[in-house]
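ZP: hey, is the 3-hydroxybutanoyl-coenzyme A complex queued? I don't see it on the tracker
AM: it wasn't, my bad. submitting now with these inputs:
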Amino acid sequence: MTASFSEHGDIAVITLDNPPVNGLGFATRSGIVDGVQRALDHPAIRAIVLIGSGKGFSGGADIREFNTPKALQEPSLHTVIRTIESCGKPVIAAIHGMAMGGGLELALGCHYRVATPAAQIALPEVKLGILPGAGGTQRLPRMIGVQRALNMIVHGAPVPSEQLADTHLFDRMITGDLLEGAMAFAHEIADVRPLPKVRDHQIQDTDATQVLQAMREQIKAQAQHYPAPTKCIDAVEAAINLPFEDGLSFERELFLQLVQTTESKALRHSFFAERSAVKIPGIGPDTTLREIRAAAVIGAGTMGAGIAMNFANAGIPVCVLETAQAALDKGLGTIRRNYENTLKKGRLTQEQLDKRMGLISTTLEYEALSSADIVIEAVFEEISVKETVFRRLDQVMKPGAILASNTSTLDLDRIASFTSRPQDVIGMHFFSPANVMKLLEVVRGKATADDVLATVMALAKKIKKTGVVSGVCDGFIGNRMIEQYLRQAFYLLEEGCLPAQIDQAIENFGFAMGPFRMSDLAGNDIGWHIRQRRRVERPDMVYSQIGDKLCERGRFGQKTSAGWYDYHPGDRTAHASDEVNQMIIAHAAELGVARRAIGDDEIVERLIYALANEGARILEEGIALRASDIDLVYLTGYGFPLYRGGPMFYASCVGLDKVSAAVQRYASGPNGHAWHVAPFLQKLTDEGKSF
Ligand code: 3HC
Ligand code: NAI
């Protein structure tokens, strides 16, 4: 049993006890029903308090049970709520920490609710691609009105309990000991009859129709890819228009439809991917972490400035080092401007801005960094510059300090070899803009100590990044894969496409940005330099020369107002470029390629399967710990559509047999030399497995 029963005089207390979040799995549900029955059987008991142990009341239904027989095994959550609602003795939900999803629905089935301030109240099901399936869409509008309920149900964001103190949701806010307060409340209402039931409340909002309509407008753009928000609105509409029981059945029907959708499966995959990524085999949760009280950053350029902001945002003092005062002034100016923009948007107060700027100091002297617990190097991407910096850091940093590099392409093990303490060296590969992008690839070198890795993963969470562990290889997980994707995009240009068609196909698939708009934003010269290096280092990696031809014309992207597209200065809108399109057609003619009409399906297949195929190699080599880590990299760093779950999940949904067959087909087509089925993909296919 994961719910316990105790008697306190004439009050029974049922305590949910299913760590970490009191998920309402089968055993917990059974425990609640048993507890209610015991309280009913005991004549001296006058009221029942339902409370959570640990960090909150309940995080909701047990997501791991979804699509398994246990989810529906009686007592279902519906049965539990019905049992409580029809119980002849008053049941009081006592809420602290969080009441989310099924947890809030359970509380809504109780006769009364009391809460501590700052408890997080939410119906976050929409974020998992479903809707509240245990009466939440029917009961919450009855307690807090249609507008507020709709906001909570359609967006899923938590609301602090005190913000709902003026609604019918809570009968009392309790500032002292919750259990004592709840029992005192129970004594006060023990004899009140009839017992109040949320279902008996009438929805009286006169503006409900307009509110529903406005919300439908608001989510129109998302609705194309996500069915859940629309169904949430439909369910709330049913709460307004149908008798309670009919509304409940309607909600149930929608829930059962949504839980089967690929979108919901993908969103749940992403939820668990995020939580798995922090688990590193062989490094237990009891690993002693190094303390990070002060940080340092080397280089105040594009990345250094953004990295420093992450520390200031998390309240950690950070000192930035440069080679010249002018570079420091420039970097600090960028940081201030970024904060001021956030202030203008109303997402930061002047006080917060001052505090954050106050946490950032600057220096030209390495000695000033000696007491920092971690230093992150973000200087030019040249091994000789990295060598100078790391040799110097090795001299000045205190013993035990973590020495991190933000390199995106250089060999971390080589960088570590410039120091006498390779065990303290690690990669922290931020993505640009570093103060905005969620992804942080945490690169584990050959010698990186376990506690260094664990500390940096914990630090990632503290600075609100999604840390994903990667081994050392050229490009790590994300950029190594994107290279294969871009390679295909370039070949498609030779074979018959133009940039806008490819971008459109990939954006219709759901990416935030197609490959050519993305390259124009990042700078086409970056890839150009990488390809030049590859010609020497990896002659097997042959590329279309189309990207080089573009750069030879100085078309580096938005920064030169010309890339794969034309741009007007100061405007990021991409306009198809006649010059580039002519260049592509002429290039194909030079190669003697007969350009053909290529469908969007082929574009999507070639780009996405190129990702998954390289992902399979990365898995086989142990560069990524698990397929879901690769998905997380793409979901948080590359704009891969959340509702498709990432390249590996997507490939598994398509079926690895189909993916392998397509790769083989492309291998015998034009530019087939760029395709080889990854041995691990082939192995899984042969075994009938998925990633
Ligand atoms: N079911 C199963 N496991 C859950 C869970 C849930 N509802 N919520 C959290 N967990 C697990 C996590 O997977 C993680 O497990 P792990 O330690 O093995 O990796 C552990 O609980 C801790 O989770 P977090 O790291 O996220 O802990 P935090 O303290 O940071 O956050 C939380 C706690 C705010 C509750 C957060 O976990 C969360 O948002 N959970 C999801 C809540 C949710 O979506 N509830 C709705 C569920 S669907 C539902 O109720 C359907 C109903 O309408 C019928
Ligand atoms: P940048 O050119 O904008 O900034 C580099 C800064 O380092 C400059 O301000 C320069 O003055 C300073 N610098 C150079 N040598 C120095 C030294 N010896 N000591 C102290 N400061 C020195 O470069 P950017 O883009 O910020 O890149 C920095 C690092 O981050 C590189 O390793 C790059 O590969 C990596 N990176 C870059 C990304 C990007 O999108 N720009 C993304 C992820 C990683």
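AM: back. The longest strand covers residues 3-8.
ZP: great, adding it to the tracker
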